[in-house]
Design a protein that fits this description.
The protein has about 375 residues and is α/β, with parallel strands linked by helices. It has two domains: about 210 residues, 3-Layer(aba) Sandwich (Rossmann fold); about 100 residues, Beta Barrel (Elongation Factor Tu (Ef-tu), domain 3). Helices cover about 25% and strands about 20% of the residues. It contains nine helices and 13 strands. The strands form two sheets. A seven-stranded mixed β-sheet has the order 4-3-2-5-1-6-7, sandwiched between helices. A six-stranded mixed β-sheet has the order 8-12-11-10-13-9. Helix 1 crosses helix 2. Bound molecules: adenosine-5'-triphosphate (ATP). Adenosine-5'-triphosphate binds next to helix 2. InterPro entries: Clp1/Grc3 (IPR045116), CLP1_P (IPR032319), NOL9_C (IPR057570), P-loop_NTPase (IPR027417).
Length: about 375
């Protein structure tokens, strides 16, 4: 029977080569690094960036009480459902480096897509805002009047899109964050790697960064990288299901996809008055007459509109629009976000993160959440 828990996904045993250990130790115990290190991990697809970042987190947690983690990989998020950019503060070791687990981020934005390519500018603005937040909250800034209680290191994990526009985006992130350490993971197919050296810096500044180049962990007898391909789409679906599993108490016996799909169809949704919220489509324009149709049976980001100059609205979770009553002017939304937090939400963000198909196929129910071209009224 299909299970949605990510722990069930088959994963190879993790092997930490010596150069990986040394790299992580250097970052954590670099005696000259005060304030704490800001380490960015980059490299080709499937080279092991996420696995190394998790290992680095664990090593940093041996020295620091807490470590901040900036996740910039919207397609394969670490602590949130897909489509988010987030800053999470971690205070516990990850016992199993193969399993991602959901955590409540300190701050996050809903980008609403699984790749930055549709809107690189918005993507970069969110990352810059999250990094600024980290600096404000967890770094002693020169000349700042606001005291910071504790300083934490930061780990930045990046996506494996390192060619073309993906490369330009990575360079912009590196220039903005200016990490104390950059870990570049190389694979044996050299054409797929990032350029050698500190590729994002001008000649004059190349000495000022600690660049650590390591190789992907697994190699065959010819020293060719053995890369494990992930089923990224399946992993995203599992992530979304694990997120909505939180609508129910953990002691409730819901372990299979079928059980979750059934439980969601019969779960009482929140009622949200349409007049109390704004609706924003993140990557497309929808005629005003079609807005409610476009929302029905979709996943939306639950955000709090912001009045800052950048107009970036922090997001506090995801919801499934279960149905819309156009007479009562109500949206019915399923979400694990508690009511007290939900009350702050005044903006629904719609992107391209979709309800996993397996949640839409529930035996005994005709396409739950959906009625063709009709908005349910009761
Ligand atoms: N040190 C390792 N030991 C065993 N398996 C590993 C190791 N590093 C990576 N892998 C496996 O290789 C696959 C890709 O690793 P990972 O997700 O860390 O790469 P990534 O560079 O973050 O990928 P992406 O570019 O898609 O974000 C995963 O299945 C992971 O378990």
């Amino acid at each position: 029977m299909a299970a949605f828990s990510e722990a069930e996904a088959p994963s190879p045993d993790i092997y930490i080569p010596e150069e990986w250990s040394e790299a992580a130790e250097t970052i954590a115990y670099d005696s000259v690094t005060s304030p704490p290190p800001v380490a960015l991990v980059c490299g080709a697809k499937n080279s092991g960036k996420t696995t190394f970042s998790r290992h680095l987190l664990n090593i940093l947690l041996q020295r620091y009480q807490k470590v901040a983690y900036l996740d910039t990989d919207v397609g394969q998020t670490e602590f949130t459902p897909p489509g988010f950019l987030s800053l999470t503060v971690i205070d516990q070791l990850t016992p199993d480096l193969t399993i991602p687990c959901l955590k409540t981020p300190e701050r996050c934005y809903f980008f609403g897509d699984i790749s930055s390519k549709r809107d690189p500018t918005a993507y970069l603005n969110y990352i810059f805002a999250l990094y600024d937040y980290y600096r404000r909250e967890y770094c002693m800034l020169k000349g700042s009047k606001k005291p910071v209680k504790t300083e934490f290191p930061l780990v930045v994990n990046t996506p494996g899109w390192v060619k073309g526009i993906g490369y330009d985006i990575l360079v912009d992130v590196l220039k903005y964050i200016a990490p104390t350490h950059v870990v570049k993971i190389n694979i044996s197919a050299e054409g797929k790697n990032l350029p050698a050296g500190a590729f994002w810096l001008d000649e004059d500044h190349k000495e000022s960064v600690n660049l650590i180049e390591i190789s992907s962990a697994r190699q065959d007898s010819f020293r060719r990288s053995v890369l494990v391909q992930k089923d990224a789409r399946l992993l995203r679906d599992l992530r979304i299901m694990a997120y909505f599993r939180q609508c129910f108490p953990s002691n409730l016996n819901i372990t299979t996809i079928k059980e979750l799909a059934h439980a969601l169809t019969s779960h009482p949704p929140y009622e949200i008055p349409i007049s109390s919220i704004k609706i924003k489509h993140l990557h497309c324009q929808v005629p005003s007459t079609e807005i409610l149709y476009s929302l029905n049976a979709t996943i939306v980001g639950l955000a709090v509109s912001s009045e800052d100059s950048e107009n970036l609205s922090p997001c506090i979770g995801l919801g499934i629009v279960r149905g819309i009553d156009t007479f009562k002017r109500l949206l019915y939304v399923l979400t694990p976000v508690p009511q007290s937090t939900l009350e702050k939400v005044d903006l629904l963000l719609q992107g391209f993160v979709q309800i996993p198909t397996c949640l839409l196929q529930v035996q005994g129910c005709v396409s739950p959440y959906m009625s063709t071209n009709v908005l349910p009224t009761s």
